[in-house]
Protein backbone atom coordinates (compact mmCIF):
# COMPACT_ATOMS: atom_id res chain seq x y z
CA UNK A 1 0.00 0.00 0.00
CA UNK A 2 1.57 3.29 -1.10
CA UNK A 3 1.56 6.50 0.93
CA UNK A 4 0.01 9.51 -0.82
CA UNK A 5 0.03 13.03 0.57
CA UNK A 6 -2.57 15.46 -0.77
CA UNK A 7 -1.74 19.11 -0.18
CA UNK A 8 -4.88 21.21 0.18
CA UNK A 9 -8.25 20.35 1.74
CA UNK A 10 -10.56 22.19 -0.61
CA UNK A 11 -13.09 20.21 -2.61
CA UNK A 12 -10.37 19.22 -5.12
CA UNK A 13 -7.96 17.85 -2.55
CA UNK A 14 -10.65 16.07 -0.55
CA UNK A 15 -12.15 14.48 -3.67
CA UNK A 16 -8.74 13.26 -4.80
CA UNK A 17 -8.07 11.90 -1.32
CA UNK A 18 -11.38 10.04 -1.30
CA UNK A 19 -10.63 8.47 -4.69
CA UNK A 20 -7.14 7.45 -3.59
CA UNK A 21 -8.33 5.95 -0.31
CA UNK A 22 -10.97 3.96 -2.20
CA UNK A 23 -8.19 2.66 -4.48
CA UNK A 24 -6.35 1.27 -1.46
CA UNK A 25 -3.74 3.97 -0.82
CA UNK A 26 -2.72 5.28 2.59
CA UNK A 27 -3.74 8.93 2.24
CA UNK A 28 -2.93 11.99 4.34
CA UNK A 29 -4.34 15.45 3.54
CA UNK A 30 -2.37 18.49 4.70
CA UNK A 31 -4.23 21.81 4.95
CA UNK A 32 -2.54 25.08 5.90
CA UNK A 33 -5.67 26.75 7.30
CA UNK A 34 -7.62 25.77 10.43
CA UNK A 35 -10.50 24.28 8.43
CA UNK A 36 -11.37 22.23 5.37
CA UNK A 37 -13.47 23.29 2.39
CA UNK A 38 -11.56 26.01 0.57
CA UNK A 39 -14.05 28.32 -1.11
CA UNK A 40 -16.98 26.25 0.15
CA UNK A 41 -17.77 27.62 3.58
CA UNK A 42 -20.81 27.96 5.80
CA UNK A 43 -21.36 30.49 8.58
CA UNK A 44 -24.13 31.38 10.98
CA UNK A 45 -25.97 34.64 10.29
CA UNK A 46 -28.75 35.60 12.72
CA UNK A 47 -28.96 31.99 13.84
CA UNK A 48 -29.22 30.57 10.30
CA UNK A 49 -26.33 28.61 8.81
CA UNK A 50 -25.83 29.61 5.16
CA UNK A 51 -23.14 29.53 2.51
CA UNK A 52 -20.72 32.44 2.54
CA UNK A 53 -18.77 31.03 -0.40
CA UNK A 54 -20.07 29.22 -3.47
CA UNK A 55 -23.76 28.44 -3.04
CA UNK A 56 -24.50 26.30 -6.11
CA UNK A 57 -23.01 24.02 -8.74
CA UNK A 58 -23.88 23.19 -12.32
CA UNK A 59 -26.50 20.45 -12.41
CA UNK A 60 -26.15 19.67 -16.12
CA UNK A 61 -22.51 18.67 -15.66
CA UNK A 62 -22.50 15.42 -13.68
CA UNK A 63 -19.42 15.39 -11.43
CA UNK A 64 -20.77 17.55 -8.61
CA UNK A 65 -24.26 16.10 -8.27
CA UNK A 66 -22.93 12.55 -8.61
CA UNK A 67 -20.44 13.12 -5.80
CA UNK A 68 -23.11 14.64 -3.56
CA UNK A 69 -25.36 11.64 -4.12
CA UNK A 70 -22.50 9.21 -3.39
CA UNK A 71 -21.99 11.01 -0.08
CA UNK A 72 -25.68 10.76 0.76
CA UNK A 73 -26.27 14.51 0.54
CA UNK A 74 -29.66 15.78 -0.65
CA UNK A 75 -29.94 18.10 -3.63
CA UNK A 76 -32.20 21.07 -4.20
CA UNK A 77 -32.72 23.19 -7.29
CA UNK A 78 -33.34 26.94 -7.33
CA UNK A 79 -36.89 28.24 -7.38
CA UNK A 80 -38.39 29.71 -10.53
CA UNK A 81 -37.54 33.24 -9.39
CA UNK A 82 -35.60 34.99 -12.15
CA UNK A 83 -32.50 37.15 -12.09
CA UNK A 84 -32.30 40.78 -13.23
CA UNK A 85 -29.73 43.26 -14.47
CA UNK A 86 -29.49 46.54 -12.57
CA UNK A 87 -28.46 48.98 -15.24
CA UNK A 88 -29.50 52.39 -16.51
CA UNK A 89 -31.08 53.00 -13.05
CA UNK A 90 -33.61 50.18 -13.33
CA UNK A 91 -33.90 46.46 -12.64
CA UNK A 92 -34.35 44.87 -16.04
CA UNK A 93 -35.10 41.29 -17.09
CA UNK A 94 -32.07 39.25 -18.06
CA UNK A 95 -32.57 38.02 -21.64
CA UNK A 96 -31.64 34.46 -22.59
CA UNK A 97 -27.93 34.52 -23.35
CA UNK A 98 -24.65 32.69 -23.52
CA UNK A 99 -22.62 34.33 -20.74
CA UNK A 100 -24.28 37.63 -21.65
CA UNK A 101 -24.22 37.28 -25.43
CA UNK A 102 -27.90 37.61 -26.36
CA UNK A 103 -29.67 34.63 -27.90
CA UNK A 104 -33.12 36.29 -28.03
CA UNK A 105 -32.97 39.69 -29.71
CA UNK A 106 -36.65 40.45 -29.14
CA UNK A 107 -36.27 39.91 -25.40
CA UNK A 108 -33.10 41.99 -25.47
CA UNK A 109 -34.92 44.85 -27.17
CA UNK A 110 -37.78 44.67 -24.67
CA UNK A 111 -35.43 44.72 -21.69
CA UNK A 112 -34.11 48.21 -22.32
CA UNK A 113 -30.59 47.15 -21.36
CA UNK A 114 -29.02 48.50 -24.55
CA UNK A 115 -29.42 51.86 -26.22
CA UNK A 116 -31.03 52.06 -29.66
CA UNK A 117 -27.54 52.32 -31.14
CA UNK A 118 -26.30 49.34 -29.16
CA UNK A 119 -29.27 47.24 -30.21
CA UNK A 120 -28.76 48.17 -33.86
CA UNK A 121 -25.13 47.14 -33.58
CA UNK A 122 -26.11 43.70 -32.27
CA UNK A 123 -28.28 43.18 -35.34
CA UNK A 124 -25.41 43.96 -37.72
CA UNK A 125 -23.64 40.88 -39.07
CA UNK A 126 -19.95 40.92 -38.15
CA UNK A 127 -18.90 37.30 -38.23
CA UNK A 128 -15.23 36.51 -37.66
CA UNK A 129 -13.32 33.27 -37.43
CA UNK A 130 -10.48 32.98 -34.94
CA UNK A 131 -7.71 30.41 -35.24
CA UNK A 132 -6.12 31.70 -32.03
CA UNK A 133 -7.22 32.58 -28.53
CA UNK A 134 -8.79 35.97 -27.95
CA UNK A 135 -10.23 37.85 -24.99
CA UNK A 136 -13.96 37.40 -24.45
CA UNK A 137 -14.53 41.15 -24.47
CA UNK A 138 -12.55 41.72 -27.64
CA UNK A 139 -14.51 38.99 -29.41
CA UNK A 140 -17.86 40.34 -28.22
CA UNK A 141 -16.89 43.94 -29.02
CA UNK A 142 -16.11 42.98 -32.59
CA UNK A 143 -19.10 40.72 -33.17
CA UNK A 144 -21.86 42.38 -31.14
CA UNK A 145 -20.61 45.79 -30.02
CA UNK A 146 -19.09 47.21 -26.85
CA UNK A 147 -22.45 47.75 -25.16
CA UNK A 148 -23.07 44.01 -25.03
CA UNK A 149 -19.68 43.53 -23.40
CA UNK A 150 -20.17 46.36 -20.91
CA UNK A 151 -23.78 45.77 -19.86
CA UNK A 152 -24.30 42.02 -20.28
CA UNK A 153 -21.06 40.05 -20.55
CA UNK A 154 -19.15 41.94 -17.84
CA UNK A 155 -21.67 41.34 -15.03
CA UNK A 156 -22.04 37.65 -15.87
CA UNK A 157 -18.32 36.97 -16.17
CA UNK A 158 -17.76 39.06 -13.05
CA UNK A 159 -19.99 36.69 -11.14
CA UNK A 160 -18.07 33.60 -12.25
CA UNK A 161 -14.46 34.82 -12.36
CA UNK A 162 -14.50 38.21 -10.59
CA UNK A 163 -12.58 39.26 -13.69
CA UNK A 164 -12.87 41.55 -16.69
CA UNK A 165 -14.22 40.43 -20.04
CA UNK A 166 -11.49 42.11 -22.03
CA UNK A 167 -8.81 40.16 -20.14
CA UNK A 168 -10.33 36.67 -19.93
CA UNK A 169 -9.69 33.95 -22.49
CA UNK A 170 -12.60 33.00 -24.73
CA UNK A 171 -11.20 29.51 -25.28
CA UNK A 172 -10.88 28.88 -21.55
CA UNK A 173 -13.90 30.74 -20.19
CA UNK A 174 -16.60 30.54 -22.90
CA UNK A 175 -15.41 28.45 -25.86
CA UNK A 176 -18.90 28.37 -27.40
CA UNK A 177 -18.51 32.08 -28.16
CA UNK A 178 -15.97 31.23 -30.84
CA UNK A 179 -18.68 29.28 -32.66
CA UNK A 180 -21.15 32.15 -32.40
CA UNK A 181 -18.58 34.73 -33.49
CA UNK A 182 -17.93 32.77 -36.65
CA UNK A 183 -21.63 32.92 -37.51
CA UNK A 184 -22.38 29.41 -36.29
CA UNK A 185 -25.24 28.31 -34.07
CA UNK A 186 -25.29 26.48 -30.79
CA UNK A 187 -27.00 23.09 -30.53
CA UNK A 188 -30.51 23.24 -29.14
CA UNK A 189 -30.69 22.36 -25.47
CA UNK A 190 -32.08 18.85 -25.17
CA UNK A 191 -32.05 18.53 -21.39
CA UNK A 192 -34.95 19.63 -19.25
CA UNK A 193 -32.81 19.35 -16.13
CA UNK A 194 -32.39 22.49 -14.00
CA UNK A 195 -29.16 24.32 -14.75
CA UNK A 196 -28.03 24.56 -11.11
CA UNK A 197 -28.23 22.53 -7.93
CA UNK A 198 -27.50 23.22 -4.29
CA UNK A 199 -27.45 21.28 -1.06
CA UNK A 200 -30.01 22.05 1.67
CA UNK A 201 -28.02 23.42 4.57
CA UNK A 202 -25.37 24.78 2.22
CA UNK A 203 -22.78 23.69 -0.33
CA UNK A 204 -20.30 23.77 2.53
CA UNK A 205 -21.71 20.40 3.57
CA UNK A 206 -19.96 18.81 0.57
CA UNK A 207 -16.34 19.21 1.77
CA UNK A 208 -17.45 18.49 5.34
CA UNK A 209 -18.81 15.13 4.20
CA UNK A 210 -15.70 14.41 2.12
CA UNK A 211 -13.39 15.19 5.04
CA UNK A 212 -15.26 12.79 7.30
CA UNK A 213 -13.94 9.88 5.25
CA UNK A 214 -10.23 10.76 5.03
CA UNK A 215 -7.37 11.72 7.34
CA UNK A 216 -6.81 15.49 7.40
CA UNK A 217 -4.28 17.57 9.30
CA UNK A 218 -5.27 21.24 9.50
CA UNK A 219 -2.92 24.10 10.42
CA UNK A 220 -0.29 22.12 8.53
CA UNK A 221 1.47 24.37 6.05
CA UNK A 222 3.70 22.54 3.57
CA UNK A 223 6.82 24.67 3.22
CA UNK A 224 9.02 22.51 1.01
CA UNK A 225 8.60 19.66 -1.45
CA UNK A 226 11.55 17.67 -2.77
CA UNK A 227 12.27 14.41 -4.55
CA UNK A 228 13.80 11.47 -2.72
CA UNK A 229 15.13 8.24 -4.10
CA UNK A 230 11.79 6.52 -3.67
CA UNK A 231 9.28 9.35 -3.68
CA UNK A 232 8.90 12.74 -2.03
CA UNK A 233 9.75 14.56 1.16
CA UNK A 234 7.55 17.35 2.50
CA UNK A 235 8.56 19.82 5.19
CA UNK A 236 5.46 20.72 7.20
CA UNK A 237 4.70 23.19 9.96
CA UNK A 238 6.42 26.25 11.40
CA UNK A 239 10.08 26.93 10.70
CA UNK A 240 10.77 26.66 14.43
CA UNK A 241 9.41 23.10 14.60
CA UNK A 242 9.42 21.53 11.14
CA UNK A 243 8.00 18.07 10.57
CA UNK A 244 9.19 15.95 7.66
CA UNK A 245 6.57 13.78 5.97
CA UNK A 246 7.61 11.12 3.47
CA UNK A 247 5.35 10.03 0.62
CA UNK A 248 5.44 7.77 -2.40
CA UNK A 249 3.21 10.18 -4.33
CA UNK A 250 1.95 13.75 -3.95
CA UNK A 251 -1.14 15.54 -5.21
CA UNK A 252 -1.03 19.35 -5.13
CA UNK A 253 -4.57 20.71 -4.78
CA UNK A 254 -3.49 24.24 -3.95
CA UNK A 255 -3.86 27.57 -5.79
CA UNK A 256 -1.29 28.50 -8.41
CA UNK A 257 1.05 30.56 -6.21
CA UNK A 258 1.66 27.97 -3.47
CA UNK A 259 1.84 25.22 -6.10
CA UNK A 260 4.51 27.22 -7.94
CA UNK A 261 6.49 27.65 -4.73
CA UNK A 262 6.40 23.93 -3.93
CA UNK A 263 7.31 22.87 -7.47
CA UNK A 264 10.33 25.15 -7.73
CA UNK A 265 12.86 22.31 -7.69
CA UNK A 266 10.58 19.35 -8.45
CA UNK A 267 9.09 20.69 -11.70
CA UNK A 268 10.63 24.11 -12.40
CA UNK A 269 8.97 24.63 -15.78
CA UNK A 270 5.55 24.02 -14.25
CA UNK A 271 6.44 26.37 -11.39
CA UNK A 272 7.27 29.18 -13.80
CA UNK A 273 3.99 28.79 -15.66
CA UNK A 274 1.94 28.54 -12.46
CA UNK A 275 3.51 31.70 -11.09
CA UNK A 276 2.10 33.61 -14.07
CA UNK A 277 -1.54 32.80 -13.20
CA UNK A 278 -3.12 35.80 -11.51
CA UNK A 279 -5.98 35.76 -9.00
CA UNK A 280 -8.85 38.07 -8.07
CA UNK A 281 -10.07 38.91 -4.58
CA UNK A 282 -13.67 39.48 -3.59
CA UNK A 283 -15.99 39.67 -0.60
CA UNK A 284 -19.43 38.26 0.15
CA UNK A 285 -21.68 40.25 2.48
CA UNK A 286 -24.60 38.29 3.95
CA UNK A 287 -27.49 40.19 5.51
CA UNK A 288 -30.49 39.11 7.59
CA UNK A 289 -33.57 41.33 7.72
CA UNK A 290 -37.03 40.70 9.15
CA UNK A 291 -39.67 40.03 6.52
CA UNK A 292 -42.00 42.36 8.38
CA UNK A 293 -39.47 45.19 7.95
CA UNK A 294 -39.10 44.57 4.20
CA UNK A 295 -42.51 43.50 2.83
CA UNK A 296 -41.75 44.48 -0.76
CA UNK A 297 -38.57 42.43 -0.74
CA UNK A 298 -40.35 39.49 0.88
CA UNK A 299 -42.87 39.48 -1.98
CA UNK A 300 -40.29 39.66 -4.76
CA UNK A 301 -40.40 37.32 -7.74
CA UNK A 302 -36.68 37.87 -8.35
CA UNK A 303 -33.72 35.80 -7.19
CA UNK A 304 -31.44 38.85 -7.29
CA UNK A 305 -29.58 40.96 -9.79
CA UNK A 306 -26.24 41.53 -11.50
CA UNK A 307 -24.58 44.92 -11.85
CA UNK A 308 -22.47 46.02 -14.84
CA UNK A 309 -19.30 47.80 -13.69
CA UNK A 310 -20.02 50.56 -16.22
CA UNK A 311 -22.88 51.71 -13.97
CA UNK A 312 -20.43 52.64 -11.23
CA UNK A 313 -22.05 50.88 -8.27
CA UNK A 314 -20.16 49.40 -5.35
CA UNK A 315 -21.62 45.90 -5.47
CA UNK A 316 -21.36 43.64 -8.50
CA UNK A 317 -24.34 41.43 -7.66
CA UNK A 318 -26.92 40.59 -5.05
CA UNK A 319 -28.52 37.20 -4.47
CA UNK A 320 -31.86 37.02 -2.67
CA UNK A 321 -31.05 33.66 -1.12
CA UNK A 322 -34.45 33.46 0.58
CA UNK A 323 -36.15 33.70 -2.82
CA UNK A 324 -33.68 31.52 -4.72
CA UNK A 325 -33.52 28.56 -2.33
CA UNK A 326 -36.50 27.01 -0.60
CA UNK A 327 -34.35 25.71 2.25
CA UNK A 328 -33.01 29.19 3.05
CA UNK A 329 -36.53 30.65 3.20
CA UNK A 330 -37.67 27.82 5.46
CA UNK A 331 -34.66 28.20 7.75
CA UNK A 332 -35.27 31.94 8.04
CA UNK A 333 -38.93 31.41 8.86
CA UNK A 334 -38.06 28.89 11.58
CA UNK A 335 -36.07 31.44 13.58
CA UNK A 336 -39.22 33.03 14.95
CA UNK A 337 -38.33 36.39 13.39
CA UNK A 338 -39.25 35.26 9.83
CA UNK A 339 -35.91 36.32 8.46
CA UNK A 340 -34.91 37.04 4.87
CA UNK A 341 -31.31 36.09 4.10
CA UNK A 342 -29.65 37.81 1.14
CA UNK A 343 -26.12 38.58 0.06
CA UNK A 344 -24.04 40.89 -2.06
CA UNK A 345 -20.65 40.43 -3.67
CA UNK A 346 -17.97 43.06 -4.14
CA UNK A 347 -14.59 43.10 -5.84
CA UNK A 348 -13.12 42.28 -9.24
CA UNK A 349 -9.63 41.58 -10.47
CA UNK A 350 -7.27 44.51 -9.93
CA UNK A 351 -9.84 46.20 -7.66
CA UNK A 352 -8.50 44.76 -4.44
CA UNK A 353 -8.11 48.21 -2.93
CA UNK A 354 -11.88 48.43 -2.58
CA UNK A 355 -11.76 45.40 -0.30
CA UNK A 356 -9.34 47.07 2.06
CA UNK A 357 -12.36 48.85 3.54
CA UNK A 358 -13.54 47.77 6.98
CA UNK A 359 -16.34 45.25 7.32
CA UNK A 360 -18.87 47.88 8.39
CA UNK A 361 -18.03 49.91 5.29
CA UNK A 362 -18.68 46.92 3.00
CA UNK A 363 -22.00 46.39 4.76
CA UNK A 364 -22.87 50.09 4.41
CA UNK A 365 -21.99 50.09 0.69
CA UNK A 366 -24.14 47.00 0.18
CA UNK A 367 -27.12 48.54 1.98
CA UNK A 368 -26.80 51.79 0.03
CA UNK A 369 -26.89 49.97 -3.30
CA UNK A 370 -29.76 47.72 -2.17
CA UNK A 371 -31.71 50.81 -1.17
CA UNK A 372 -31.23 52.31 -4.62
CA UNK A 373 -31.91 49.05 -6.45
CA UNK A 374 -34.89 47.57 -4.59
CA UNK A 375 -35.84 50.20 -2.01
CA UNK A 376 -34.56 48.21 0.95
CA UNK A 377 -34.42 50.50 3.99
CA UNK A 378 -34.72 47.90 6.76
CA UNK A 379 -31.90 47.68 9.27
CA UNK A 380 -30.35 44.18 9.24
CA UNK A 381 -30.47 42.30 12.52
CA UNK A 382 -27.18 40.65 11.58
CA UNK A 383 -24.50 40.84 8.90
CA UNK A 384 -21.52 38.70 7.98
CA UNK A 385 -18.54 39.66 5.79
CA UNK A 386 -16.47 36.93 4.18
CA UNK A 387 -13.34 38.01 2.34
CA UNK A 388 -11.87 35.78 -0.33
CA UNK A 389 -8.35 37.08 -0.85
CA UNK A 390 -6.94 35.68 -4.08
CA UNK A 391 -10.03 33.56 -4.39
CA UNK A 392 -10.54 33.16 -8.13
CA UNK A 393 -7.94 32.35 -10.80
CA UNK A 394 -7.93 34.54 -13.90
CA UNK A 395 -7.93 32.65 -17.18
CA UNK A 396 -5.95 35.10 -19.29
CA UNK A 397 -5.63 34.80 -23.06
CA UNK A 398 -3.52 31.72 -23.74
CA UNK A 399 -4.55 30.04 -20.49
CA UNK A 400 -5.25 26.60 -21.95
CA UNK A 401 -1.87 26.56 -23.69
CA UNK A 402 -0.26 27.42 -20.36
CA UNK A 403 -2.16 24.61 -18.63
CA UNK A 404 -1.00 22.17 -21.32
CA UNK A 405 2.61 23.16 -20.65
CA UNK A 406 2.10 22.78 -16.90
CA UNK A 407 0.66 19.30 -17.32
CA UNK A 408 3.50 18.17 -19.57
CA UNK A 409 6.03 19.31 -16.96
CA UNK A 410 4.13 17.71 -14.06
CA UNK A 411 3.48 14.47 -15.92
CA UNK A 412 7.23 14.10 -16.40
CA UNK A 413 7.58 13.60 -12.63
CA UNK A 414 6.44 10.10 -11.57
CA UNK A 415 4.04 10.11 -8.66
CA UNK A 416 3.15 13.81 -8.93
CA UNK A 417 -0.29 15.19 -9.85
CA UNK A 418 -2.12 18.53 -9.71
CA UNK A 419 -5.76 19.57 -9.48
CA UNK A 420 -7.98 22.51 -8.61
CA UNK A 421 -9.59 25.62 -10.05
CA UNK A 422 -6.40 26.96 -11.66
CA UNK A 423 -6.58 24.63 -14.62
CA UNK A 424 -9.64 23.68 -16.71
CA UNK A 425 -12.54 25.31 -14.89
CA UNK A 426 -13.45 27.23 -11.73
CA UNK A 427 -16.86 25.63 -11.19
CA UNK A 428 -17.36 22.86 -8.64
CA UNK A 429 -17.95 20.07 -11.20
CA UNK A 430 -14.84 21.06 -13.19
CA UNK A 431 -12.75 21.11 -10.02
CA UNK A 432 -14.05 17.68 -9.01
CA UNK A 433 -13.22 16.37 -12.50
CA UNK A 434 -9.66 17.62 -12.12
CA UNK A 435 -9.42 15.80 -8.78
CA UNK A 436 -10.61 12.54 -10.32
CA UNK A 437 -7.96 12.96 -13.02
CA UNK A 438 -5.21 13.58 -10.47
CA UNK A 439 -6.15 10.56 -8.38
CA UNK A 440 -6.30 8.33 -11.44
CA UNK A 441 -2.82 9.49 -12.51
CA UNK A 442 -1.35 8.61 -9.11
CA UNK A 443 -3.14 5.26 -8.97
CA UNK A 444 -1.92 4.34 -12.46
CA UNK A 445 1.65 4.22 -11.18
CA UNK A 446 4.92 5.50 -12.68
CA UNK A 447 4.90 7.05 -16.14
Describe this structure as you would to a colleague.
It comes from Nocardioides mangrovi. This is FAD-dependent oxidoreductase. Residues 11-442 form the Amine oxidase domain. InterPro entries: Amino_oxidase, FAD/NAD-bd_sf, Zeta_carotene_desat/Oxidored. The mean pLDDT is 95. This protein has a seven-stranded mixed β-sheet with strand order 7-6-17-18-19-16-20, with helices on both faces. A five-stranded parallel β-sheet has the order 11-2-1-15-21. The two termini are 18 Å apart. The chain has 447 residues and is an alpha/beta fold. Helices cover 34% and strands 23% of the residues.
Keyphrases for this structure?
7-stranded mixed β-sheet; 34% helix; 447 residues; 17 helices; alpha/beta; single chain; 5-stranded parallel β-sheet
Produce a short descriptive summary:
This protein is an alpha/beta fold.
Number of helices: 17
Low-confidence stretches: none
Residue share in β-strands: 15-25%
Please state the overall shape, judged from the principal axes of the Cα atoms: globular
**Share of helix, binned:** 25-40%
Terminal CA distance: 18 Å
Order of strands, widest sheet? 7-6-17-18-19-16-20
Amino acid sequence: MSRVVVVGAGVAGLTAARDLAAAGHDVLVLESSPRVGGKLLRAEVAGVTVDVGAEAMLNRRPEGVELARELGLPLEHPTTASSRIWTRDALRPLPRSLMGVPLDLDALAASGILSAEGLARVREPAAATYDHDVAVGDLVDRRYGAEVTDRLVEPLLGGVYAGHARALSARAAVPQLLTLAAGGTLPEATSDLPVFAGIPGGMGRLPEALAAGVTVRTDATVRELSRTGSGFSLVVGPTTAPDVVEADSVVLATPAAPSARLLGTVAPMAATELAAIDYASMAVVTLAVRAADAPALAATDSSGFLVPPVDGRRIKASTFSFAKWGWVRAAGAETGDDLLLLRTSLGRHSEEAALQAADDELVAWSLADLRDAVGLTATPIDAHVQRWGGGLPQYAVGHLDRVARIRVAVDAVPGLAICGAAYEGVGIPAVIASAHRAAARVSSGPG
